[in-house]
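Changelog-adjacent note: as of this version, every example in the card shows the full chain rather than a window. The one below runs 156 residues end to end.
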Amino acid sequence: MIVSEWAALGQTTFFINGQPDPDAHGLAQLKSRGMTIEREPVVSVGEDERSIDLYFRDGRTSKRDGLFLLPRARIKGPFAEELGREVETGPLGSYYKTDASKETTVKGVSACGDVATPMPGIAFAVADGVRAGGAAHLSLIFRPGLIGLRRSPKYG
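Full-length structure tokens:
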């Protein structure tokens, strides 16, 4: 709701877009910030040089100066099911279940980035990749029973 602070009172609209209404407390907060609530789903979005055009299911249109989206993430393809990975669902969509080292529920298979975090986004994905890469490297050095890998003399 911080977006409502970036515009004059009454200049911000919250598009429910076919989702369930917020609870009574959430609706009261939206109204207290002067936000209009639009329940009709948006079926398409267009734009010109100066505005964004929203086209609603009921045939109405609306011009807007800006639009903030909260997209839902989804894992594409049957990869998780084929490997037997567990998938979790968060507020922004589905993602692979991983432990602190970014290993999935399938031993030796790691995942990172938008497919492995409940908070998709570039900064989170990069940080997640760094953590997964470091953990994968350590698992290759220190995991017992790996064939063909030499142990570091320094670390045994």
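Structural remarks: The two ends are 54 Å apart (CA to CA).
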